[in-house]
Amino acid sequence: MKKLINDPANIVRESLEGLALAHADILKVSFDPVYVVRADAPVAGKSGVISGGGSGHEPMHSGFVGRGMLDAACPGQVFTSPTPDQIEAATRAANGGAGVLHIVKNYTGDILNFEMAAELCQQQGIEVLAVVINDDVAVQDSLYTAGRRGVGSTVLAEKICGAAAERGADLAQVAELCRKVNANGRSVGVALTSCTVPAAGKPTFMLGEQEMEMGIGIHGEPGRERLPLACAREIAAAMTETILADLPFRIGDSVIAMVNGMGATPLMELYLMYREVEHVLRGRGIAVVRRLVGNYITSLEMAGCSITLLRAGQELVSLWDAPVLTPGLRWGI
Amino acid sequence: MAIGKHEVLLWLEALARVYGENRDRLTELDSAIGDADHGVNMDRGFSAVKTELAANVPADIRSVLQAAATVLIRTVGGAAGPLYGTFFLRAAAAAAGKQQLETSDLVATFRAGVEGVQARGKAVAGDKTMLDALLPAMAAMTAKLESGGALAEILDAGVTAAEKGMLGTIPMQARKGRASYLGPRSIGHQDPGATSAWLLLKTAAETWT
After folding, report:
1. Are residues A191 and A152 in the same domain?
2. In this predicted model, what pLDDT tens digit does every residue of B85-100 receive, in sequence order?
3. What would the pLDDT profile of B152-164 be if each residue is shown by its tens digit?
4. Among A112, A136, A194, which would you mutate to test the B interface (most chain B Cβ atoms within 10 Å of its Cβ)?
5. Which of B74, B173, B182 sits opposite A222 (nearest CB)?
6. pTM (2 d.p.)
7. How many structural domains are present in chain B?
8. What would the DSSP string read from start to end of A160-193?
């Protein structure tokens, strides 16, 4: 294992200390329990929006704390959901009196911990609504699985819900928007290499030099199938077609498109992939109205990328364009 | 022999050692079908329980179990944190007011814990989860209690059933948790949660008999 770390046991804490030092103008970090919160929280009268999940996906979620996006984030250990005491403390810190939305990715651990936290908050009289993101088309949604995983749409939901809350939407409206993003967003990922959980010290899985894992999860969970490596054009086409068929997207739809790096793939390759994705979408009569290319929901040092498409009308696009000031996303300010 | 506060403390202390020793094994099992952190999380959680109980010794069995639950919920994370946390929380409630757990109390306490896990995780037998070790253990312990078995026999029956249940997860296809994403590819791997649940009982038997 080659990583720029001191001790695997301290990686999350030391990284958050760095985040706090680097972005003191935007956010504060609490360490007991651990959560990241907007520097000016709580904003009186504003609906709060928080999220959380295992660490190792940076900039999600801590890097999306700031004006126009999240009020707070709860980072767990690497790939491990945060604990109820963290989520409860973050909810209290984010509550400006108008209640707090929990944006939860669909993983068993995240669901259980957020549920326990919501119970604790409600006992204290804080109104909490939770929306679960489950946009990964690689996983079959049936009675016999934990359901689809929450991946790329989470980033878009955090941006859009944060913007709505900033504009004064009440908690129910913000939650409704979150459900709308989830209902209209779909993602799929591909891995070229594994990632190494620092505490485990060795790669989570092995991929041969000429193999890729299609449908990879963001924790190195294996995906749909292991395939021979193909060229970017073929990979992008296969991924995009899988997403399009799932919603399904239709001719004339407008979408916000994200090509996201898993951590070790250079931006050069991500833009190249974006070129291929937009080409496929044009061919299918789908208009890309906004795009985001870069590393936003990563999986440690995994190589590969994910593609997210969100069918977006004027309301979502307008919220997407609203000003945002966070370590990971900033525009319009 | 009945189980008092001292025995419960010894068990929890032994669990810190056992999960430390099995940290890599559990993480390896979790790498195959999960996210490679179960051993690390259990080790972190039960080490913290040991530290907490050494610093502040609670007054009775109930508060010992409650303190363990609170620490586990705070430190384990993942799905295991709320599930084991709920196990100890419900067990604590069942042990309320008791200075000694007779065999029937012990089985009732264990049953309350297992029912808590069921309620929290909403899994059933055959889903390839920790319940596949816990449910058969609960049934075996209840049967042994009803046929008049002594503590050692009850625990032994529980451990044997849990081990069989744990091994029985190998051919199962996961229907809950992260392993369920693998579909048929989860077949052929032993469930890490069922393994840590078996260790929980095995350590109780080793500590108390």
Report:
1. no
2. 999 999 999 999 999 9
3. 999 999 999 999 9
4. A112
5. B182
6. 0.86
7. 1
8. HHHHHHHTT--HHHHHHHHHHHHHHEEEEEEESS
